[in-house]
Write a structure and sequence with these properties.
Elements: E1 4-8, E2 17-21, E3 30-40, H1 42-48, E4 65-72, E5 84-87, E6 90-92, H2 98-101, E7 112-113, E8 125-129, E9 134-135, H3 142-145, H4 151-161, E10 169-173, H5 179-189, E11 192-197, H6 203-209, E12 213-216, H7 220-225, E13 230-235, H8 243-247, E14 250-258, H9 270-276, E15 279-282, H10 288-300, E16 307-311, H11 315-323, E17 330-334
Parallel strand pairs: 10-11, 10-13, 11-12, 13-14, 14-15, 16-17
Antiparallel strand pairs: 1-2, 3-4, 3-8, 3-17, 4-5, 5-9, 6-7
Helix pairs in contact: 4-5
Length: 338
């Protein structure tokens, strides 16, 4: 009987504890990965605390997994034992619906999140469908690559999906775990980049991450000066904002794109949408092909998240560090079960 050691939560606001489970037989299209590193994402914290009312306990979090393939089912294609791979927010999808066949697997209505009803990467091993097991390109630093598989793809996908051009001016709202990667990707994409932050102390860091300009998101006069200047504004925060003020920073045909899980309704003035022919949209992570494209782009342009490392045995300390807002800017856990 196969046993996997992991760290699991057994209820909201409870500390994670050592946990052992039997994953059962390896599926014909499944891959088993020995975990080397796993990013710690704020979504893990939300799932641990059941903030989205979808958690199934005991929950093994961790959906920014980097490791090596140690076993494969008989129908796995294109992968090999020992290969370095990553697994992000999704571990599986149906592979036969319109979205999956069309290449938008991340929009599959029955996609299997890696940490909801499935054991995630805060473990010595994790499993995923071979399509969702993404080979890591040469030149990528595997010790810091984990956060690219969720946070990175979240801010990269809009650039690809909405056909952003190097001549465009992009704004990134929130210079945190998502936003700092958004700045790096947008700058490497060739765009003019403006960072919006409520924390003036992050201005220099934002410029180092790629911002040409830094604007206070709390300064109404500064927002007014940005009117009609942006082609896209990517919102990475999960807090209420001056949505009308942000919308006015967009040019005609501009897009306000939300990737932060804002839980409160967003008041959007329809008249600004109509007369400026503007759009409001959102997106979840990305498809396997988009993930692979993002990793290749990151390797080519030497894009890596800024990370802090904790051994996985100090997972509760790492969670407290994240919840207190002290992470600069992503946390990566190093598996240390042996």
């Amino acid at each position: 009987m196969t046993q996997i050691q992991a760290w699991a939560g057994h209820g909201p606001k409870q500390k994670l504890e050592r946990y052992t489970y039997d994953p059962g037989p390896l599926g014909a299209e499944e891959v088993e990965i020995a975990v080397d590193y796993c990013g710690l994402c704020h979504s893990d914290l939300s799932i641990i605390n059941d903030e989205w009312r979808m958690t199934k306990y005991p929950v093994v979090p961790g959906h920014e997994v980097v490791g090596s393939i140690i076993a494969m089912g008989k129908q796995v294609k294109g992968l090999k034992i020992g290969q370095k791979v990553g697994v992000g927010w999704n571990a599986d999808s149906c592979m036969h619906c319109h979205e999956c066949i069309g290449g938008n697997h991340n929009l599959c209505l029955t996609a299997q999140p890696t940490i909801v009803g499935h054991r995630g990467g805060f473990a010595e091993r994790v499993r995923a469908h071979w399509v969702w097991t993404i080979p890591l390109p040469d030149g990528l630093d595997i010790a810091s690559a984990g956060p690219l598989l969720c946070g990175g793809i979240t801010v990269f996908s809009p650039l690809l999906t909405f056909n952003l051009k190097p001549t465009h001016h992009i704004g990134i709202v929130g210079i945190g775990g998502l936003g700092h990667m958004g700045l790096k990707f947008a700058r490497a994409w060739g765009c003019e980049v403006t960072a919006f932050t409520s924390n003036a102390s992050k201005a220099d860091e934002a410029r180092n991450f790629g911002a040409h300009h830094v604007v206070s998101s709390r300064d109404q006069s500064a927002l007014r000066k940005m009117a009609n200047s942006l082609d896209m504004l990517i919102v990475t925060v999960n807090l209420p904002m001056d949505w009308a003020g942000l919308l006015r920073t967009l040019k005609p045909n501009g897009r306000l794109h939300v990737v932060g899980a804002v839980v409160e309704p967003m008041p959007i003035p329809a008249i600004d949408l109509i007369f400026g022919q503007k759009s409001v949209s959102g997106s979840p992570t990305g498809s396997p092909v988009t993930l692979a494209t993002m990793l290749e782009f990151a390797a080519r342009h030497h894009i890596a998240p800024q990370v802090e490392h904790f051994p996985m045995s100090r997972i509760n300390e790492a969670l407290e560090h994240l919840e207190a807002g002290k992470a600069r800017y992503r946390v990566v856990l190093e598996a240390d079960f042996n």
